[in-house]
Amino acid sequence: MQVMVEISLYPLAEQFVEPIQSFIDRLNGYSEIDVQTNQTSTHVTGDYGKVLSVLAEEMQRTHESVGQAIFVAKFLNFDAMQARAENN
């Protein structure tokens, strides 16, 4: 099963750009997932288990390095999205 996660990171720190860029750069280092970034969020698409595993690892790493940070995420069944698009 494929999943698409739309995720945004809000580090609770004065220097907030570097932790966000670091998180995105680390996500882009995984060849097994697709990462698309826009101005307000990052879309991560791939195998459900792999995407969640990567996000768990990288979110924990962010919390360990930054301290307080808020992640906001939406999880979408990408298989269903593609099937719907094909039927329209």
Automatic annotation (TrEMBL):
<dbReference type="Pfam" id="PF07615">
    <property type="entry name" value="Ykof"/>
</dbReference>
<protein>
    <recommendedName>
        <fullName>Thiamin/hydroxymethyl pyrimidine-binding YkoF putative domain-containing protein</fullName>
    </recommendedName>
</protein>
<dbReference type="InterPro" id="IPR011522">
    <property type="entry name" value="Thiamin/HMP-bd_put_YkoF"/>
</dbReference>
<feature type="domain" description="Thiamin/hydroxymethyl pyrimidine-binding YkoF putative">
    <location>
        <begin position="3"/>
        <end position="66"/>
    </location>
</feature>
<dbReference type="InterPro" id="IPR029756">
    <property type="entry name" value="MTH1187/YkoF-like"/>
</dbReference>
